[in-house]
Amino acid sequence: MSADPTAVDLRTTLGAVELPRDVVRVAGPDAVDYLQGQLSQDVAALGPGEAAWSFLLQPTGKVDAWLRVTRTGDDELVLDVDAGHGEAVVARLRRFLLRTKADVDPLPWRAVALRGPGADRVEGLTGLVVPTWPGVEGVDALGEDVAPPDGVARATAADLASLRVRAGVPAMGAELTASTIPAEVGRHVLGASVSFTKGCYTGQELVARIDSRGGNVPRQVRGLVVRAGAGVAPGAAVVVGGDEVGTVTSVAPAPGGGTVALALVKRAVTPPAAGEVRVEDGTVAAEVVAVPFEG
Questions:
Q1: How far from each other are the two terminal CA atoms of the chain, in whole angstroms?
Q2: In Å, how far are 3, 42, 250 from 70, measured between CA atoms?
Q3: Residue 13: which residues within 8 A CB-CB, separation 6 or more?
C-alpha cells in the first residue's frame, strides 16, 4: 500500500476531523449514585467539567460499552460512545433504573476531534470540550452545533483511524464486542477506565478477579505492522510459527505507506513477533507488536 501524499499523521501534525459519536444525558437527583453503581469509573469523584473513560459492563463482566463520562452538573452527566451504540447504552441503563430518580435520554449532539501537538490550546472550540483517548494528545468537542475551528488543518477519517490503531484505542464492534472482557484491551485502556478502589458496580467481580491474578487473559489486543498490506481486512487470520493465533479487528493506513492493524491475539504470542496475515490470494508478512505502537 503506497503512501497517501495528502494524509495527515495526527501524532505529529495538528488536525481536526468530525468524530462519529452518540451522546446520552443522565440527569436527576440519583444520577451520580446510579452511574456509580453501573460504570467501572469512579463517577462520584469527578468534579464539574471533568471527564473520564469507563466501561459499562454486563453482570458477567463482559463489555456492553466503552464510553466517556463527563460531569456537567451536580445531578447531570453526559456519556458519549462510538456512533451506532448510543441506543444500546440508553436501553442498558434504563433497564436497571427501577425506582431510581434519574432520566436517561439521547442527545442530538455531534463531535469534532482535534488531534496532534497543541490541540488543547486551540481557540474557537464550542460546546463541551473534553480530553480525548488515553495516551493521545488531543481534545474532543461535543454539542449540537460544534464544527472544526478555523485555522486548523482538516484531517480525514482514515487519518483518525490510523492514529486510533497506532494508539491501541479499541472501537465498539471491532475490538470491543459482547464477548470482550476489559483486561483484553490493554493496561493503558484499563488503567484509564477502571477504578479499583471504588465500591461495587455491575460486572466488578470478573474485573477484580482477573486483576488479582495479574491481568492474565487468554487473548489480548495487539498491533500489526504490515509493510505491504494490500488485502488485509478485519476478520483475517493472524499466523505465527505456522499456527493461527488471532484475528484482525481494525485496519488503517500507516504513515509513509503500508498498513497498521489491531488484532485479538493469543496470550502465548509475545511481541515483537514475526508472523503473517492471511489474505485472499495467500499471506502477507506482518510483525505483531505491543500497543500502543512505538513511533
A1: 19
A2: 38, 12, 27
A3: 116, 117, 153
| 22, 70, 130, 192, 209 from 51: Cα distances, Å | 16, 4, 6, 11, 26
Angstrom distances, CA of residue 226 to CA of 22, 229, 259, 260, 262: 32, 5, 5, 6, 11
Does this model's pTM top 0.90? My answer is yes
pLDDT tens per residue across span 51-94 = 999 999 999 999 999 999 999 999 999 999 999 999 999 999 99
If you average pLDDT over residues 37-59, what whole number do you get? Answer: 97
Which grid cell is 258? 503500508
CATH 2.40.30.110 domain span(s) along the chain: 219-289
What is the CATH superfamily name and number for domain 15-156?
Aminomethyltransferase beta-barrel domains (3.30.70.1400)
Close Cβ partners of 237 (under 8 Å, ≥ 6 residues apart): 244, 246, 247, 248, 277, 278
Cell 500502543 appears where? 292
Per-residue pLDDT, 281: 86
Options 2.40.30.110, 3.20.20.70, 1.20.1530.10, 3.40.50.10490; which CATH number does 219-289 get?
Answer: 2.40.30.110
Amino acid symbol at 187: R
Query: Which residue from 192, 186, 161 is spatially nearest to 55, judged by alpha carbons?
Result: 192
Q: What is the number of other CB atoms lying within 10 angstroms of the CB of residue 196?
A: 13
